[in-house]
Amino acid sequence: MDLNADLGEGFGIWRLGDDAALLDLVTSANVACGFHAGDASTMRRVCEGAAERGVAVGAQVGYRDLAGFGRRHIAYAFAELRDEVTYQLGALDAFCRLFRTRVRYLKPHGALYHAAARDETQAAALVAAVGDYDDQLPLLCLPGSVLAQLAAGAGLRVVAEGFADRGYLPNGSLVPRTAPGALVTDPEEVAARAVRMATERSVVAVDGSVVPCPVESICLHGDTPGAVRCAELVRAALIDAGVTLTPFA
Questions:
Q1: Are 187 and 230 in contact (CB under 8 A)?
Q2: What is the distance between the alpha carbons of residues 95 and 92, in angstroms, rounded to a whole number?
Q3: In sequence order, what are the residues at sequence separation of 6 or more whose Cβ sits closer than 8 angstroms to the Cβ of residue 39?
Q4: What does the alpha-carbon distance between residue 107 and residue 56 come to, in Å, rounded to a whole number?
Q5: How many Å apart are CA 195 and CA 211, to the nearest integer?
Q6: Cα 60 to Cα 2: distance, rounded to the nearest angstrom
Q7: pLDDT tens digits, one per residue of 118-153
Q8: Is the dihedral of CA 65, 71, 72, 75 positive or negative?
Q9: How far apart are CA 57 and CA 131, in angstroms?
Q10: What is the pairing mode between strands 28-32 and 210-212?
Q11: Whole-model pTM above 0.70?
């Protein structure tokens, strides 16, 4: 099982989360590419830290929305979104090359992640950007989403992702961040959810129902309160359960 986290989400002198500590615990790093968060120096620092630790780097691409942290929906034309995703991919890949590594996958962030799960135009723009840039790059996304379907149809590798620190609805989608139960912040509960995802391929939704969750990668958000403690417990719990942690890419 892969364990990923959203990293590099600070901007300038403002830091969000403890990137260095999380890089010691995860196997893949979703690095912000400067549109919803991150900047050149932050990208360089996280890529260097990931390369030193053997952590796979993925492009965490988002809407051009620093003020809203990429969590506000934006209506994009297909070509504009395709090109902005390509721009972000190239920027991060440049910093990876400085440290003899490369971008190994793409993951949309925030509102783009949710839009691409149901919106064919935005999902198609992501698929086109990856196909044009490097058709060997996997796409990390919700299982069964529109993005997953279009990517598979285009011959791209799809990697299903689960969220140990986010609430699920009975239909398998995530609870909106504005709704109760959106975040799971108790480290013990987060760890238990991660183990269930890895060993039973399921998750308990907010209404108590059990939802299938066949994933290859488990995400922890770097900006979730207590993120480092959660990651420590998740990693330990997965290893104790006999789960081998390794990057999917």
A1: yes
A2: 5
A3: 10, 11, 12
A4: 13
A5: 14
A6: 16
A7: 999 999 999 999 999 999 999 999 999 999 999 999
A8: positive
A9: 18
A10: unpaired
A11: yes
